[in-house]
Write a structure and sequence with these properties.
The chain is mainly beta. Helices cover about 10% and strands about 35% of the residues. It has 15 helices and 57 strands. Strands 46, 47, 48, 49, 50, 51, 52, 53, 54, 55, 56 and 57 form a twelve-stranded antiparallel beta sheet that branches. The chain has a seven-stranded antiparallel beta sheet with strand order 1-10-9-12-7-3-4. Strands 31-30-28-27-26-33-32 form a seven-stranded parallel beta sheet. α3 runs parallel beside α4 and α6 packs parallel to α7. It starts with 13 loop residues before the first helix and ends with a strand.
């Protein structure tokens, strides 16, 4: 605890008297204009420990006793009085805009600051990187200014308030709820605090107020500078000028520009404007594949030639345009393989470090993503630096989402200034980044005059980039008179997108701003979606929702966030004992939207989910195809990149044979330009019995900024030899001889010393999030598929054969099930099964067998798709081969326990441990899962810390398994991946060693 100097009275404070939290027309007071001049280098960081009090409302006076808080940070992650709360669409309180609740948590941060003595005579600026949602600033009790917009920096000139060489007290008051909260309703945790760094910096009174860079792919460069001074009346001194340097190339002020301004009477006494222009010969262009950057330095000189101010920029030469229905980068139609990304960390909320940001982007790059939408606000400035360096196309999105009251606010003139202010400040900050190729007016805020006003300002200020906004284009993708240059729907069925592209009515590119909702075990049909995109001119991709599972690390014993003390207490997507990933409702809030916050392609600790491997293969820069027949077959390599050849890649061949072999041989990638293809030398293949799969394992040939040499890039695969048609699971000789029948009980259930539960018919899975929100889980429960009643109809024993007929009674009719157990001479048991589903069971989760082993089995080896999880409609990223893993590693720890850990296309598998082996050979590629939990175990709990693993293994062998789809928010799986009624047959052998 800490006691500062006596508090100043709030009743007479003009910032408090203004009540800015209840005035949407007021977006700032005393705040400096935004600019693209980056002052982070050389600034003095004020990050660290600040005195802190959390008040019940902004009108309350701070008391004498203070705690400590770490800035940047969110108080919800350490202050028990105001825990985190998650809502998706609904505001967390009932007041209509622009009102906010009277109980309005208000954080007061305070610390002493001492500006260096050598800053005397300089202009001193305080920068607060981000504050949620209203920021009030005081220095030594005197009001400095206020700001709204929770995701952009606010700067204040404190020259007259801070005495260099002497201490000053800076107070930051953050009001959590405000009129602005209604336009920050963004499907994320509600957290209050100062979430980005606080800086103090100094400049000469004569300074660069803004720098605008336009660098084209033909090498043309234009640098526009705005100059101001804070000395005296603000009149600029005579004789100032600018110069610059681009990678050693000198740049001089454009006198022709000066002359035209003078002739047009556009010369100001208090606002200086200057321009530098040149053409760079043999320019290296920037793209997401080839992120070539140049160092630009801009200098402002006094009349005597001394440098008053300097601005450094990393720039890229590139063009972006919409031509007809194509989005072009450097004249090329590029695919947008994007993801939506929030700023998030499981310990610090929206406070993310440079290392966090770099790790995010490196992960995305390694899994084939080339684009980021900054949902739903401008990201931390460092993200754009990294996107420039590593190579990402960025849709920069303004901090506007009024989801709960969208159409009311879109045309509300009280919010007009806020819309224009948020869009313009984003553009002014980020306009020089080559990675930013599209501006977005916000998200899910309907469409109204406020959007048109913001778009009008934007197009005037920056005509070099297209503008998008889903709300403008959602009613008519083919319209030409709204604020969006791109049709950017969300969660549109791919069939509708294809139909629009083929309709003859398409007028602009169609790039989904959100698609393939990644909640839980999801992202089914992603490969089918991309096959349609690549086959249909006019479709160019989209942005998966989303990057993160927003699970906050929570202590189980007291329900509080672990905060920074939780560092290192999680690994591989799993929280340490005593901790869990929290989602909506876990902090005691009654109004919440549950696990809808856990909808990312990575877990809260950035561990990739299985869908990441699916995406990596879909987005692969290299693909394989087989051409010809028989001995005339050839392999063709396709370069699917837009700008880069294959010289940055290395490869080797890997063979996987059904009869038990895996081997590798060297491969030499041919010289193939972007978009081209070539025949690759065919390796020699040792052909035994059964199928053989050929995989080209592609890696980085040298170090890349995002990956060291040898990093996996993609694994394109083709089947070189197919298995014989109708190959049986047993041969004719296997049934010859006299062997006793398999042991079954009176109900016809198989009894085996290594089975803790006999093989029975299974029609249900622990509902995925898609199953729950899509309505399937409720239907399955109504049918009783989670608790069916089994009736034995007959048990017939004849020699080595036991034939069992039974039925499963459901709410939609009886399922007839027949199992035939045959003892084979080599000790195996052949199991042949038939299930007949009545017509009323139109869409079940699975049809197959479930059994449980005794304890001790801890490892699985299988031949099929892997090594990671795969399902019928999400299997492209899992190559066929021989795989093995610990049983406990097969389970995928989605935040809400559900069906997971399946492997698609399995031909045979072996469980081993405790001196035993249990082998199963299937009649064809089937869906198999092996883990420690029954489906009922998973469905009964909300978090993983509640699960109790069983000693044995729960094994599912599915003749048919329903696809995953994305029905939690978007289309369900395709009809071809549904499990229909009718007859299902499958067979398998069981062998114990």
């Amino acid at each position: 605890m800490n006691t500062p100097s006596s508090p100043w009275p709030r009743a007479a404070d003009p910032l408090i008297a203004l009540r800015p939290w209840a005035a949407p027309e007021v977006t700032s007071w005393g705040r400096l204009p935004m600019s693209a001049v980056d002052r982070r280098a050389g600034a003095r960081s004020l990050d660290g420990r600040w005195r802190f009090q959390l008040l019940p409302s902004p009108g309350d006076e701070p008391g004498p006793t203070w705690a400590w808080a770490e800035l940047p940070g969110s108080w919800a992650l350490h202050a028990a009085e105001d825990p985190p709360q998650y809502t998706n669409v609904r505001m967390p309180w009932p007041e209509f805009p622009p009102h906010s609740p009277a109980a309005n948590p208000t954080g007061v941060y305070e610390r002493q600051v001492e500006a260096p003595a050598d800053w005397a005579g300089r202009r001193i600026v305080l920068q607060v990187g981000a504050a949620e949602s209203v920021l009030l600033v005081h220095v030594d009790g005197r009001p400095v200014g206020m700001s709204k917009d929770s995701h952009l920096a606010a700067e204040f000139d404190v020259t007259d308030l801070v005495r260099p060489g002497a201490p000053s007290t800076v107070r930051l008051t953050v009001v959590k709820w405000s009129d602005a909260s209604h336009i920050e309703d963004q499907d994320q945790w509600w957290l209050g605090g100062v979430t980005r760094s606080v800086l103090l910096y100094a400049t000469d009174p004569l300074h660069l107020a803004d720098v605008t860079v336009r660098a084209r792919r033909d090498g043309a460069l234009r640098v526009d500078c705005r100059v101001r001074t804070t000395e005296g009346t603000g009149a600029l001194p005579a004789g100032w000028y600018v110069s610059g340097e681009l990678d050693g190339l000198a740049l001089a002020q454009d006198t022709a520009f000066d002359r035209v301004n003078a002739e047009d009477e556009r010369v100001s006494d208090f606002l200086g404007e200057a321009r530098m222009e040149t053409v760079v010969p043999e320019v290296r262009t920037w793209s997401a594949e080839t992120p070539e950057l140049y160092d630009l330095t801009v200098r402002l000189h006094r009349a005597d030639g001394t440098v008053a101010d300097t601005s450094h920029h990393r720039i890229g030469f590139r063009d972006v345009e919409v031509r007809g229905r194509d989005l072009l980068v450097n004249g090329e139609r590029v695919y947008i393989r994007g993801v939506n990304r929030h700023d998030f960390h499981p310990l610090t909320g929206r406070t993310v470090s440079y290392d966090d940001l770099r790790a995010d982007l490196v992960t995305l790059k390694r899994f084939g993503f080339n684009a980021i939408r900054t949902s739903h606000y401008p990201s931390d400035p460092a993200l754009y630096d990294l996107a420039d360096e590593l190579g990402f196309y960025v849709v920069d999105e303004a901090d506007i989402e009024s989801h709960d009251h969208a159409h009311e606010i879109a045309d509300d003139p009280r919010y007009l200034n806020a819309f224009v202010d948020r869009v313009s400040r984003m553009v002014l900050r980020d306009k020089n980044h080559p990675s930013v190729i599209i501006w977005s007016l916000g998200n899910e805020s309907d469409y109204g005059a406020n959007h048109d006003a913001a778009a009008g300002w934007l197009r005037r200020h920056d005509p070099t980039r297209p503008v998008q906004y889903e709300g403008a284009a959602k009613l008519d993708w083919g319209a030409t008179d709204d604020a969006s240059d791109i049709a950017c729907p969300m969660y549109a069925p791919i069939e509708d997108c294809v139909a629009h592209a083929l309709s003859g009515k398409q007028t602009r590119p169609l790039i989904q701003c959100e698609y393939s909702h990644a909640m839980g075990n999801s992202n089914g049909t992603l490969a089918d979606t991309w096959a349609a995109i690549e086959a249909t001119p006019g479709l160019q991709g989209g942005f998966i929702w989303e990057f993160w599972d927003h699970g906050i690390l929570q202590r189980v014993n007291d329900g509080r966030p672990a905060g920074r003390g939780g560092a290192g207490l999680y690994d591989n997507g799993v929280a340490a004992p005593g901790l869990r990933w929290a989602y909506g409702g876990d902090f005691g809030e009654t109004l919440h939207d549950g696990a809808f916050i856990a909808d990312g392609v990575v877990f809260p600790d950035r561990t990739p989910k299985p869908v990441m491997y699916e995406h990596r293969e879909i987005a692969a820069p290299v693909r394989l195809s087989v051409e010809g027949e028989g001995t005339w077959r050839v392999l063709r390599v396709h370069n699917k990149q837009h700008f880069r050849d294959l010289s940055w890649l290395a490869a080797e061949w890997e063979f996987a044979a059904a009869d038990g072999g895996t081997w590798t041989v060297p491969a030499q990638l041919p010289d193939v330009p972007a978009g081209g293809s070539a025949v690759i030398d065919r390796p020699e293949v040792r052909h035994g019995a059964g199928e053989i799969w050929l995989t080209l394992r592609v890696t980085t040939a040298a170090d890349e900024p995002w990956a060291p040499r040898g990093t996996e890039v993609c694994f394109p695969q083709v089947r070189w030899y197919e298995a014989d048609e109708g190959e049986p699971v047993v041969g004719a000789d296997d049934t010859q001889g006299h062997v006793p029948p398999p042991r079954t009980d009176d109900e016809g259930l198989l009894r085996h010393p290594l089975l803790a539960a006999p093989p029975t018919l299974s029609l249900w899975r622990a509902p995925t999030d898609n199953d729950v929100l899509g309505g399937m889980a409720e239907r399955w429960r109504a049918w009783g598929l989670d608790r069916p009643t089994r009736e034995t109809v007959s048990v017939e024993r004849e020699g080595p054969v036991v034939r069992v007929r039974s039925r499963l009674l459901t709410g939609a009719g009886a399922v007839e099930h027949e199992q035939t157990f045959t003892a084979l001479v080599d000790g195996r048991i052949l199991v042949e099964e038939t299930a007949v589903l009545p017509e009323e069971l139109t869409d079940v989760a699975r049809v197959g067998t479930v059994l449980e082993t005794t304890g001790g089995f801890d490892r699985l080896a299988w031949y099929g798709q892997g090594p990671w999880e795969s399902y019928p409609d999400r299997a492209v990223g899992a190559p066929v081969g021989h795989h093995s893993a610990a049983v406990d590693d097969l389970f995928t720890p989605y935040l809400r326990p559900q069906e997971s850990g399946g492997r698609h296309g399995v031909r045979h598998f072996t469980l081993s441990g405790a001196g035993h082996e249990l082998s199963v050979r299937l009649d064809g590629p089937r869906q198999v899962s092996v883990n420690r939990y029954r489906a009922q175990d998973l469905a009964a709990v909300a978090h993983h810390d509640e699960l109790v693993p069983r000693p044995g293994c729960v094994v599912h062998i599915d003749a048919a398994h329903r696809g995953l789809g994305t029905a939690s928010c978007g289309p369900d799986t395709s009809p071809s991946y549904l499990v229909p009624p009718g007859v299902h047959r499958w067979s398998w052998t069981l062998r114990a060693l």
